[in-house]
Specification:
The chain is an alpha/beta fold. It has helices at 2-7, 22-28, 35-52, 92-101, 113-129, 151-164, 175-180, 187-199, 219-235; strands at residues 14-16, 58-61, 66-70, 84-87, 104-109, 138-144, 202-208. A hairpin with a 4-residue loop joins strand 2 and strand 3 (66-70). Helix 4 packs across helix 5 (113-129) and helix 8 (187-199) crosses helix 9 (219-235). The longest helix has 18 residues, at 35-52.
């Protein structure tokens, strides 16, 4: 991470989460543990990274990590450290950790503005409890996006997405329920939804242009989003 920060001239933000897919842990030989253990390890990760990114030899004695005058060379460009983001749905413990350790909180991939607003209120309350200015906790959301020129195109696109979803995970959704908590529909729908999240303090939306993250089986969604959503949003 420090090397990437050097190569990018200080443009790296680093995201950290507790993990949730046991098969990924098994594939790399990592202990999965229960949720409480993974959250404890995540909190210790924040402490270790803070020490390493400081530019000084780092020492700490933890349950999961031990550092003894450990150097990080080259250090990051950004000081006092690379911005650290915590990822998760926003339960009480996660928001407490965000308020205590993180520069920002990211939540993904399906949110209505109303449900997200409730968790933002909880995040700001957690900041107040920790003696932190709530305005200093940065906010971002990740959103699925099925985008089409018109309603007919959107209905067809949703049908293709639902059919392609592994394990029938969204078989109980319809085009209306999917649009309710994603960045989907027409470009006008997406711009309206972006405005709602912006009003809640969100500074960045990470777009997954399909029914799964990090998959782009229909590049036309990306092109339409860039031309009809991103460009108008930037000009406002």
């Amino acid at each position: 991470a420090a090397t990437i920060d050097q190569l990018s001239d200080g443009r790296l933000d680093l995201g950290i989460g507790a993990g949730w897919l046991e098969q990924e842990f098994d594939a790399f030989g990592y202990r999965y543990g229960d949720v409480g253990e993974r959250f404890s390890q995540m909190e210790e990760t924040f402490a270790a990274l803070g020490a390493l990114f400081s530019g000084r030899p780092a020492s700490m004695e933890g349950t999961f990590f031990t550092l003894d005058q450990a150097p990080l060379l080259p250090g990051p460009v950004q000081q006092p450290r690379i911005p650290l983001w915590i990822g998760g749905k926003g339960g009480p413990r996660l928001l407490r950790l965000a308020a205590r350790h993180a520069d920002g909180w990211n939540a993904a991939w399906r949110w209505t503005p109303a449900a997200y607003a409730e968790r933002v209120d909880a995040a700001r309350a957690a900041c107040a409890t920790e003696g932190r200015d709530p305005a200093t906790l940065r906010l971002s959301v990740g959103m699925y996006s099925l985008l089409a020129e018109d309603e007919r195109g959107y209905e067809a696109l949703f049908a293709r997405g639902r059919a392609a979803m592994p394990g029938g995970a969204i078989d109980n959704d319809n085009s209306a329920t999917w649009r309710a908590d994603t960045l989907s529909g027409t470009p006008a729908d997406a711009l309206e939804r972006i405005t709602e999240f912006e009003a809640l303090g969100v500074e960045e939306i990470i777009v997954a242009p399909w029914v799964l993250p990090f998959a782009i089986p229909e590049p036309s969604i990306v092109e339409l989003f860039a031309e009809r959503v991103m460009n108008p949003a930037r000009r406002r």
